[in-house]
Task: structure prediction
Amino acid sequence: MSSAPETPSALDVLLSRASTDQLGLPAPDKGQIARILSAGLRAPDHGKIRPWRYIVIKGKNRAGFAEKVVEAMLAADPEVPEKKIAKRRQRFSEMPMTIALVMALNPQSKIPVAEQELSVGAGAMNVLNALHAEGFGGFWVSSDFAEQACFRDALGLTETQRLAGFLFVGTPEKPVGGSKRPDIQDYMAVYKGEPVKFEADQ
Result:
């Protein structure tokens, strides 16, 4: 008698996630990406600020978006190397999907802005985990051009909105093993009434 393969637990799925930028088609469809991004809205949100905003770039709009990226790069540094421009143009125009992570912050709130930013980061991590759980892959990248006025205007960002980076999204082109993670014992400590020490800091 053969037994069915054991279904990985939710924790097993989380522990198997790793970033990859070797991504191909398909990207999540309209229904899938709506469900995946909904996981981002489950992040901790002290004060109900709801600071998460997601801009999805896909299909025929990728090439035009890539040109906006190049324009912003040149605005930030007119002498940016052509090699860097070519690489960014290719990545933003060829990745199956890009998600711009927008932080809609409220500086007037009693909730510290740093805490609002952490909520956006937690939301992005939820999205990466949801992508992995649904069989997709993701890669979080930052930028050195996101604050340029031409780029902010192209995205329609308000004065209090900023970018936390981008997620490249698609289907992993090969199994994602990821680098070996460090031992958790080096990064945790049990408080016993005295100051703690972490092995990772020794």
